[in-house]
Amino acid sequence: MLMSAENGSLLVVDVQDKLLPHVHDWQALLQNVIWLVRVARRIGVPVMATEQYPKGLGETIPELKEVLPSPPLVKMHFSCGADPAFAAALEKTGRRQVVVCGMESHVCVFQTVRDLVAMGYEVHVCEDAVSSRQELHRASGIELCREAGATITNAETVIFDLLHVAGTPEFKKVSALVK
């Protein structure tokens, strides 16, 4: 369960403009996802994002797109892990730990987590950075992720776990974001 910036990666699943306003507590979701992306980028953790069928669900929300290091990968599979282009891009990072955030927790997040665990990745799901249109679906999605073998965590725990110690150059890079 020990995460490391050297072995970790961050995956943002389908935070898209046509669906986001309909998910439970979407403001908190967006705030925590952006926070995770900013911290990951400052400490050198690779960040990947996806969009599920953007023609129907819209593009990644602009506030998030601004902080992403590269454009989201477009997919049709609900699971990122089932998408060959995503799977190849993740493998190319060489990282074996994946922190997952995004939506919807009971569909794309869960199916992604299930597949990544089956592919041998250590998966951490930020329960305060995933959501669904209904709270019941968000909660059951998180439970399904746990049953699939993911560690359930939260954004702040992930950030401090990746940093490990105060006073380092990495900590100084993100301390203003943690306050």
Q: Count all strands and give the number.
A: 6
- Total domain units: 1
Number of helical elements: 8
**Structural class, judged by helices and strands?**
alpha/beta
SSE run: EHEHHEHEHEHEHH
Question: Which runs of at least 5 residues are low in confidence (pLDDT < 50)?
Answer: none
Mean pLDDT over the residues: 94
Query: How far is the first residue's CA from the last residue's CA?
Result: 25 Å
Strand order of the largest sheet: 3-2-1-4-5-6
> Mind telling me which CATH architecture this is?
3-Layer(aba) Sandwich
Report strand %: 15-25%
Report the C-alpha radius of gyration, rounded: 15 Å
Largest sheet: 6 strands, parallel
Output the CATH homologous superfamily: Isochorismatase-like
CATH classification, class level: Alpha Beta
Percent of residues in helices comes to 40-55%
Shape: globular
Report the CATH topology name: Rossmann fold
How does this structure look, described?
With 179 residues, the protein is α/β, with parallel strands linked by helices. It has a single domain, classed as Isochorismatase-like (Rossmann fold, 3-Layer(aba) Sandwich). The chain has 8 helices and 6 strands, in the order βαβααβαβαβαβαα. The chain has a 6-stranded parallel sheet, with helices on both faces. The longest helix is centred in the first third of the chain and has 17 residues, at 26-42. It is globular. The model has no long low-confidence stretch (mean pLDDT 94).
